[in-house]
Specification:
By secondary structure, the protein is an alpha+beta fold. It folds into 2 domains: 185 residues; 116 residues, Histidine kinase-like ATPase, C-terminal domain (Heat Shock Protein 90). Helix content is 70%, strand content 8%. The chain has 14 helices and 5 strands. Strand 1, helix 13 and strand 2 form a beta-alpha-beta unit. Helix 6 runs antiparallel to helix 7, helix 10 packs across helix 13 and helix 13 runs antiparallel to helix 14.
Length: 371
Amino acid sequence: MRQARAMAQAATPSSTVDPWERFGWLMGAIWLVFLAFPIIALATGEAPTVWRVLGIVGILTFAAVYLRCFIVISGVDTWDQVVRTGLRHLAVMALIALALTPLLGVGSLSHLPYIVALAMFSLPLTWAFATAVGAVLLCIIVPLAVGSLTEDWYFILIVSLVALSTGLVRIVEQRGHVHRAAQAELALAAERDRVARDVHDVLGHSLTVVTVKAELAERLIETDPVRAREELAQIQALSRVALAEIRATVSGLRVASLADEVAAADAALTDAGIEADLPEDLSDVDPRHRVLTAWVLREAVTNVVRHSGATRCTVELGPGRLVVADDGRGAVGRREGNGLRGIRERVAAAGGTITLTPGPTGGTVLEVSLD
């Protein structure tokens, strides 16, 4: 229970607190009302007043120890702390119940349901069930020994019901914590994948364009110094944009714009010496798919510039369709890289499909279909 909670807390914001962890002790406090019966029995008994007062104080101390343990374990962070706290409090409660036996007689068994309940929420399950079994056996053996089993049989029923109900709650709670911890782990893994995929897409595109412009500037530095300086200035601007995009990606604020990506694709293809045929009207694209389409377009164009060796690239956009075709060396049958894998993951997460086929005259046609 606590092991799972500790894992869940490590993966979730500290401000998110399970109300059961803070106020669950109230559920244990409700049942303390039944200690009124042994208190009434003592108050109306025939024992000397001093012993009756001491007995009532003992019962109230028992209740305070029981309640304090629930409050303490609701605030600790590790399962080992819970077990140590539970064992200490249970030992004190058992000693108090034993000390009250000369005053209460068989009625001292009324403390066992509280011991069983606390054991269920503060001890390992095997220890807790062993405690419950021992408590039920006491409820059988003690009345048998004093010859009052026919009158005090209800202790067996009460302790058994408490053990069963608290045991079920403990098991359900433990599985709930495990489930939430697993969900937190999955969410963390998904976030890692998102950051890795986005960083790859952002850096892959930006560094590809920077490389193309750097090669162009190197060729122009002697023949056209002015143009070379312009390319170097653009490299500097692209580096700043890439840095800002990386920061936004890591913080989860990065959102691709389809219009911006079409313009960036035009610039990247042109700088690489690839003739670009891009759509001017983007109104046909379904607004639900614009961000995804922008991400896919960015990575697809980056792959064309980096790997295809193409002289021409055509992009088609529709309500639920994106096609990127080039006349390069072709990618079908080659090992799939991180970029294409990232596209597949994004499209699959949106319920779409992706196909990669040879072009009619060579090259590669990447088609994405979205519902």
